[in-house]
């Protein structure tokens, strides 16, 4: 079953606009990660935020984590056509040595030139 | 550093056959995880291997199995293929330490399996 649920399922914006994607999860986590996937290829890691962190930046990416609401958001600023891809959040469940990453179903982002 | 490699990239099989997929992790990574990706179910965790031992297993039937070798390379096998096994199979490696949380995963390009 999916731990992370992304919202919206699809997003279409104009180049230069900001894109905000949300992820909600159900159980306690060690960390939450965001990945990008282009056209059925392998996933590329974007950013990892730990359960004791609230905000993290990486280039044009900003991720927030609210453990009280069990939610995270990914903001891509000044989007480019090359940002067109599927974005997934993944949570590492808090089960000790055998914890695993569970992925959401993904958000399809289209950036129009 | 070379990335994660998967072979073959594409496979066409018929129902009832079996298939073996291979994954070579990034040098130094001891954790290898396998995922199945389909349009309907999304990314589903199959299993993880760490130092030749299966650490965790997803909710898949026993037809799906795997192993890891002493050089950390991993294989997964699917026996008695069904139409529903058609999917993109992704392998990922990480620097996960024993007993630690799952850290950044580095994915290979995937093997696209079509079962006819």
Strand and helix order of chain A: EEEEEEEEEEE
Provide the helix percentage of chain B.
under 10%
Structural class of chain A: mainly beta
Shape of chain A: globular
Which spans of chain B have pLDDT < 50 for at least 5 consecutive residues? none
Helix-strand string of chain B: EEEEEEEEEEE
Specify Rg of chain B, calculated over alpha carbons. 13 Å
Note the overall shape of chain B. globular
Number of helices of chain B: 0
Can you give the mean pLDDT of chain A?
A: 91
What is the rounded Rg of chain A?
A: 14 Å
Low-confidence stretches of chain A: none
Quote the average pLDDT of chain B.
Answer: 93
Q: Portion of residues in helices of chain A?
A: under 10%
**How would you describe the oligomerization state of the chains in this entry?**
heterodimer
How far apart lie the N and C ends of chain B? 37 Å
Strand runs of chain B, count: 11
The largest sheet of chain B is: 7 strands, mixed
Largest interface: A-B, 25 and 27 residues
Molecular structure report:
The complex is a heterodimer of chains A (113) and B (116). Chain A is mainly β and 113 residues long. Chain A has no helices and 11 strands. Chain B contains no helices and 11 strands. In chain B, strand 7 (64-68) and strand 8 (74-78) form a beta hairpin. The radius of gyration of chain B is 13 Å and the shape is globular. Chain B starts with a strand and ends with a strand. Chain A binds chain B through residues 2, 30-31, 33, 35, 40-45, 48, 88, 92, 96-106, and chain B through 4, 33, 35, 42-43, 45, 48, 55-56, 58, 88, 90, 92, 98-110, 112.
Keywords:
heterodimer; A: 113 residues; mainly beta; 6-stranded mixed sheet; 5-stranded antiparallel sheet; 11 strands; globular; B: 116 residues; 7-stranded mixed sheet
Short description:
The complex is a heterodimer of chains A (113) and B (116). Chain A has 113 residues and is mostly beta strands. Chain A has strands at residues 5-7, 10-14, 19-24, 29-37, 43-50, 55-58, 61-66, 71-76, 85-93, 101-103, 107-112.
């Amino acid at each position: 079953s999916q731990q992370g649920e992304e919202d919206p399922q699809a997003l279409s914006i104009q180049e230069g606009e900001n894109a905000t994607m949300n992820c909600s999860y159900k159980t306690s986590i060690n960390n939450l990660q965001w990945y990008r996937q282009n056209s059925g290829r392998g996933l590329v890691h974007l950013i990892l935020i730990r359960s004791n962190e609230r905000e993290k930046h990486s280039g044009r990416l900003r991720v927030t984590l609210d453990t009280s609401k069990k939610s995270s958001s990914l903001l891509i600023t000044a989007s480019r056509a090359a940002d067109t891809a599927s974005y997934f959040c993944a949570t590492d469940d808090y089960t000790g040595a055998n914890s695993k990453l569970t992925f959401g179903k993904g958000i399809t982002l289209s950036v129009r030139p | 550093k070379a990335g994660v490699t998967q072979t073959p990239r594409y496979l066409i099989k018929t129902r009832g056959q079996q298939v073996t997929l291979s994954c070579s992790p990034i040098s130094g990574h001891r954790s290898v995880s396998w995922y199945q990706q389909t349009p309907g179910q999304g990314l589903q965790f199959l299993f993880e291997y760490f130092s030749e031992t299966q650490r965790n297993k997803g909710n898949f039937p026993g037809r799906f199995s795997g192993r890891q070798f002493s050089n950390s390379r991993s294989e997964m096998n699917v026996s008695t293929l069904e139409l529903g096994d058609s999917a993109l199979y992704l392998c990922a490696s990480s620097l996960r330490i024993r007993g630690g949380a799952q850290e950044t995963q580095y994915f290979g390009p995937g093997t696209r399996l079509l079962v006819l």
